[in-house]
């Protein structure tokens, strides 16, 4: 379970596709948020988060995702989550994250929503 | 097969130590054949309780005790720290719309613990905090 956090990012049009692996805690959350802060002056306005390989998250990690959502909302962007573990999806629902984001079944369908 | 397990762990305040407790919980859950979604939710609850414990443990007592009592039907979680405690009355219910506009986006732990468990009791004072949680597993 204690696998090292990994993060891959790829720019697709005006969207950033983020694939994570491992535990999303404060350190991982900060790394995710930093990518978007570093690109705040770019044309990136949407984010697709594929959390297939992240089965554990804590509220501090989620607070950094809220930062990203806030940043992209200011650009009228959209945030889409893919492959959420059921417990993480339920956690996001409880917090109300889906008022500001959505889920998709696949990367293709996420990109279609954003096109 | 024994259907009642008890696991006690003392966690020092080092990065990601909470995963040790989550791994123990997952192992017991798998052994007892408990549904993955129930264990997944319990792991969120436990993680938040441990984070809360470390945040209030104080510099002199940077450790948290956690105890699981698990059967096929129910999980009892006891999380204790011996720090400075906190005033539960001062903990505000977080709202996503307000958090989105706020610099402080944290403060979700108690809401998550309440929402994902069947019973939550928090006793906090100047000598520490004890969180007792019950989660039904069927």
Structure description:
Chain A is an alpha/beta fold and 115 residues long. Chain A is 40% helix and 25% strand. Chain A has helices at residues 26-38, 59-73, 86-95, 107-114; strands spanning 6-12, 15-21, 46-53, 79-82, 102-104. The mean pLDDT of chain A is 95. Chain B contains 4 helices and 5 strands; from the N terminus they run E-H-H-E-E-H-H-E-E. Helix content of chain B is 34%, strand content 30%. Chain B has 138 residues and is an alpha+beta fold. The mean pLDDT of chain B is 94. Classes of the chains: A alpha/beta (115), B alpha+beta (138). Chains A and B meet through helix 2 and helix 3 of A and helix 1, helix 2, helix 3 and helix 4 of B.
Helix-strand makeup class of chain B: alpha+beta
The CATH architecture of chain B comes to: 2-Layer Sandwich
Question: Would you tell me the overall average pLDDT of chain A?
Answer: 95
Instruction: Describe the oligomeric state of these chains in a short phrase.
Output: heterodimer
Question: What distance lies between the first and last C-alpha atoms of chain A, to the nearest angstrom?
Answer: 36 Å
**Broad CATH class of chain B:** Alpha Beta
CATH architecture designation of chain A:
2-Layer Sandwich
CATH fold descriptor of chain B: Heat Shock Protein 90
Largest sheet of chain B: 5 strands, antiparallel
Beta content of chain B comes to 25-35%
Helical residue percent of chain A?
Answer: 40-55%
